[in-house]
């Protein structure tokens, strides 16, 4: 499908890291996972946008959620109506084309992607209203569930839909939460520069590193229990990169180099091109 090829092109421009495992997925599952990633990246770009104030972010995110909640059979791009207003030219391509990503998955699983994206957009709006004020570990758990742990649940549903693969969903939450915790550590300086602190009160990297490792242990268990197949092939790549990034941060590096990223990926799956 040309629409899937176009989606993969935008995906490659948006995240080469996730482009690799998604591009390797079989047809139908590829469309579903690509749709989920691009829809969630679209709203993530709003949450992180440096040029939008928090009320505008919350308004746009809630509008996206409401539009997806109105989706019905034969939902089209035209049905996805968001008034971007004067913000449209400031938003990333992946965001303004969200309607195209929403209609990408097969009809039998599309509503699950819409539901997950709508719920996540509402949660992001909640945190935007509160300027991402995280005071306790419970707050951190709420945030990392809302924007990532829930993705683990969606992935579990996609695997089950595609070929009946069953997973431990608590571990699936840990999979998403662990990846997000590593992102919080990696982006610490940038977040503080824009006035956002995802660390609970009194926490330093001495608490955030163990928090990340606890959740990555759940991610390991989730992934190791997967049978050979597309779900396992997909999960091994971001998990390897999360472990590699956390190890690099513990050594005082800012991030993994491009060569280190490719080396980690090639250690998991053969990469061509």
Features:
273 residues, mainly alpha, Farnesyl Diphosphate Synthase, 2 domains, 13 helices
What do you see in this structure?
This protein is an all-alpha fold. It has two domains: 129 residues, Farnesyl Diphosphate Synthase, CATH 1.10.600; 142 residues, Orthogonal Bundle (Farnesyl Diphosphate Synthase), CATH 1.10.600.10. Helices cover 69% and strands 0% of the residues. It is built from 13 helices and no strands. The radius of gyration is 18 Å and the shape is globular. The mean pLDDT is 93.
The CATH superfamily of the largest domain is identified as: Farnesyl Diphosphate Synthase
How large a portion of the residues is in β-strands, by DSSP E?
Answer: under 5%
The outline comes out as: globular
Helix content: 55-70%
Quickly name the level 1 CATH class of the largest domain: Mainly Alpha
Summarize the structure.
This protein has about 270 residues and is an all-alpha fold.
Task: List strands and helices in order, with pairings.
Blueprint lengths: L1 H13 L1 H8 L5 H19 L6 H16 L23 H4 L1 H5 L7 H20 L7 H27 L5 H18 L1 H6 L11 H20 L5 H21 L7 H11 L5
Helix pairs in contact: 1-2, 1-3, 2-12, 3-7, 4-7, 7-8, 8-9, 9-11, 9-12, 11-12, 12-13
């Amino acid at each position: 499908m040309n629409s899937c090829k176009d989606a993969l092109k935008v995906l490659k421009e948006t995240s080469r890291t996730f482009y690799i495992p998604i591009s390797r997925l079989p047809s139908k599952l590829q469309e579903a996972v690509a749709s989920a990633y691009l829809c969630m990246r679209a709203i993530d770009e709003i949450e992180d946008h440096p040029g939008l104030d928090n009320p505008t972010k919350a308004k746009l995110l809630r509008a996206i959620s409401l539009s997806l909640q109105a989706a019905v059979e034969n939902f089209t791009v035209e049905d996805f109506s968001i008034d971007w207003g004067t913000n449209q030219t400031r938003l990333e391509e992946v965001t303004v084309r969200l309607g195209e990503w929403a209609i990408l998955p097969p009809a039998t699983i599309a509503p699950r992607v819409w539901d997950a994206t709508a719920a996540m957009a509402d949660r992001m709006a909640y945190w935007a209203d509160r300027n991402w004020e995280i005071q306790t570990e419970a707050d951190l758990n709420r945030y990392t569930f809302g924007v990532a742990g829930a993705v683990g649940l969606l992935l579990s549903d996609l695997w089950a839909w595609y070929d009946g693969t069953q997973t431990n969903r608590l571990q699936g939450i840990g999979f998403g939460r662990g990846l997000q915790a590593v992102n919080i550590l990696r982006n610490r300086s940038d977040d503080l520069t824009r006035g956002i602190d995802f660390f609970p009160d009194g926490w330093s990297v001495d608490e955030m590193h163990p928090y990340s490792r606890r959740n990555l242990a759940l991610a390991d268990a989730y992934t190791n229990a997967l049978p050979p197949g597309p779900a396992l092939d997909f999960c091994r790549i971001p998990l390897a990169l999360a472990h590699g990034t956390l190890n690099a941060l513990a050594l005082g590096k800012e991030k993994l180099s491009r060569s280190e990223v490719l080396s980690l990926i090639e250690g998991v799956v053969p990469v061509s091109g």
